[in-house]
Design a protein that fits this description.
This protein has 2 helices and no strands. The chain has helices at residues 3-60, 63-72. The model has no long low-confidence stretch (mean pLDDT 90). By secondary structure, the chain is mostly helical.
Length: 89
Amino acid sequence: MTRRVLVLLLLLVINLVSAIGVVKSTQQTRELFHDLQSARMTHDRLATEWAQIQLEDSAWASPDRVSQVARAQLGMVQPRDYVVLGEHQ
């Protein structure tokens, strides 16, 4: 074989290796993009769930609700000579 044919074969092999590398990196990019989209969807779902939990927590902990539960379920009543802290008789 002549030197020219060897150079052409070498270039062909390099070209094939390069093409395989491009296909592989394209596939990896698609997989990573899919993973990214899945992570974003999970993030959005968890952020919504967290906001709902915070809203529910604030509703359960509101002073009116605590007072209502104290009266209804625990039978608690407000003392008759109730004095606000900081006031003197």
